[in-house]
Specification:
With 468 residues, the chain is α+β, with helices and mostly antiparallel strands. Helices cover 24% and strands 20% of the residues. Among the domains are: 26-70 and 265-466, 2-enoyl-CoA Hydratase, Chain A, domain 1, CATH 3.90.226; 77-143, no CATH class.
Amino acid sequence: MRKNWLFALLILGLALSACNAAAPTPEPASPTAPPEPSATPTPLPPTATATATKSGPTGPLATAMALQNQVTLSAPTAQVIAADDYVGIFEQAWRIVKENYVRDNYNGVDWDAVYEEYLPRAEAIQTDEELDKLLTDLIRELGDDHSRYVPKNRFGNEFGVGESSGGSPVTGIDFHYWPAREDEYLYVWYVCEVSPAAQAGIQRGDVILAINGQEVRRVGPGEFEPAYWRAAYGYGDATVTVTVQSGPTEEPRDVELALSGVAGCDDWRWYLVSESPRIGYIRVPNFDGNAASLIMEALRDLEADAPLEGLIVDVRHNPGGNSDDAMSIFAEGTIGTMGPLREDATRTIYRIRGPVEWNDSTPMAVLTDGASHSAAEYFAIGLQVLGRATIVGENTAGNTEGINSFNLANGTVIRLAITTILLPDGSSIEGVGVTPDIRVPLGMWGLAQRPYDVQLQAAIDHLLTQIP
């Protein structure tokens, strides 16, 4: 369903939000970790003090590259298995899960019984395609969205390698990875400055009601019918017609968008949202390998004239990467433990090491939503546990398992959840997400507020109460 999203979304521009939880840098540890211990501003339009920097690939391509860099391939077992030994490869895959999956109860699945059920199917396999189907079904038995079998023809999508469709013409519609799980509406998150969507007057906060005449319906968390990607890059159509509404008093209108090249798409962005007091805003679209240095660059720009009195970091619709270095800009200390949830398993202390690179006292808020995944969740929970920032928005995706990639004898890969984070009190955010300190639903028109959306405005309002 997310076909070619890692590539095609690079040039999209009208944003509406797999997670790959990067395992933090561990520290040798014990099985358990101890707890660690207004005037109303005149909002500035983003263009007034905005500074956007793109150093190297950014956006979805940067996310794909970060994912590729995170991949740790574990070699097959010492047993020699031929590439056409379908039973041997099945048994190898089953054993990888048996010995390495994050939970030794396999989410309530009797893994030995699964072996007995699948063995006859493996013995009947005649083609590589049949093996791909069996192994896909095998890993799905875990009921774990993080774990998956990756056949060779999916390597491009999974690891950001191979031929990219990033040069394909698009409409200028970008769902900014994919909708958040709580979204009741298909929002326009961002619009490329140069794109058919911008020319048609589509703006951030507009709601897409229909695609090519088919009414958009929410069918599950973050899922809409018809396929919302069609509004972004047409699926081969020369034009796409979207029905949009720009506000509660506006009438819906049909807009035909031709597919073309786009430019000026939103990625990293920072600016002042208030001059007095001086409050900065940094949008972090992903935590790729360059994220920490870009955050520091943003802070230097924002403080070029005077120190900040408050800071908002926006990780909404952020698919992850590795946020440990970014956290250490603001705080240090123990967040919890990391490791498998298996009997007698060794867990390591999850600690953000100092010294703090910026400061640990300027009031901060972090914006989150249900499309904040993986490392974005580590960033939010880390600063929340350490008492460094107030979380504003919606619960994050709850997609926090660390994944390892295991080679099979035929050159395919199993991506398997092998670790997860536990907080100092022993609780987990897996499947739940980071609960915001201040919950702010968007509603139908909350993203369309001017000059700032309701979640960002709530963060500004909160910081005003924290600044002396």
